[in-house]
Amino acid sequence: MRFYSTKNKSKFYSLRDAVLQSMPEDRGLFMPESIPVLPEGFFRNIAGLNFQDIAYAIAKQFLAGDLPDSEIDRISREAVNFPVPLVRVTEGIYSLELFHGPTLAFKDVGARFMSRLMSYLNRGENQKLTILVATSGDTGSAVAHGFYNVDGIEVIILYPSGKVSMLQEKQLTTLGGNISAVEVDGTFDDCQRLVKDAFLDSDLKSAYRLCSANSINIARLIPQSFYYVEAYRQLEDRSLPLYFSVPSGNFGNLCAGLIASRMGLPVSKFIAANNQNDSVCRYLSSGEFNPMPTAQTISNAMDVGLPSNFERMMDLYGASHISMKNEIAGFSYDDIQTRQAMKQVYKQDGYVLDPHGAVAWLGLQDFLRQFSGQSNAVFLETAHPAKFIDVVEETLQFQLQIPDSLEKLKNKEKRAFLMQPDFLLFKDFLNSRI
Q1: Please, are residues 201 and 427 in contact by the beta-carbon 8 Å criterion?
Q2: Among all residues, which ones are annotated catalytic?
Q3: Which of 19, 108, 310, 355 shows the smallest number of beta carbons within 10 Å?
């Protein structure tokens, strides 16, 4: 399959170039030349498949011709060798639990798939591949663990100082080896800007083979479509209208859902659930995109003032506000409302939400109030509540059991380079490593 830039649809790139280059030279984002539709009968016979079967079927639509079928199958099955259960919270409302992977966050799916695909595409290269990734929390840890000790690849993670949870920070700063962390005295948007500027710097491009593991990379986006289809497979009655409420920061997760729908998944509506960083929500309401400075919230993985994937959304809808609004509803909530939702769901249903899942649950509730009748309403639980243990325990007033994989991190030593959000400083840091 060929790929184009959102800023220039007349120039095409190979899969290898799109994945390993990450961003076109024109600062756009890569998109597939066309979004394939799954074969006739796929959804009709989906009950007989498992998650790994679904991952392979979708991946093959994008990778066939560039990779042997056997490699597509291996990459897909290794990437999703853990469940994403659809859990009934109350009548007609389900949580899609995306936190059963190695780092207990939804980004394990994309990071594990991407690490294996990049390793295959990078085979035979003499110069190592340097992956730069900006994180507002879970991306960094998923990428760090997905690429840990992968031959020929090093990873440099940039994260905003004081704006990720303690356990998130430990996950991305304690591995060592081929994983390095840069603690930026700024916001996620500062981290993302430094990464994007590095890709476009001619000096760095001549010294390094640079690549991104953020959702700006199409190799992160494609596998995230897998679990939307897997949620559909797990439904008891697939004839009912299907709604997905997606906690949204950089909007890669929602874009993946839109890709799944264009491949044939029968979704009636997507809900973009924002915290106070609600630039896309405001666009859906007004038709004007006016990003604001990033605000810090308890749902920190969504603290993105200028979401990169909005550009892909505009591409998918031909820059039509009306078309986007017809398929996506937007809602936003502050920290007080988020905590109230966590308390309410725990009291009424005995289900523990993390702050991001709480925002998605709120968006789903507000959307459902507009309609009557039965439906399958799914909200995405993107991270294990224990990753935000301080917020969860303070809000719900009980001691949360911490998974062993997180408990072991508590006493590990953090290793990170503290840096101001200045590109020349970051460039000097990179040059010092050559």
Answers
A1: yes
A2: 107
A3: 310
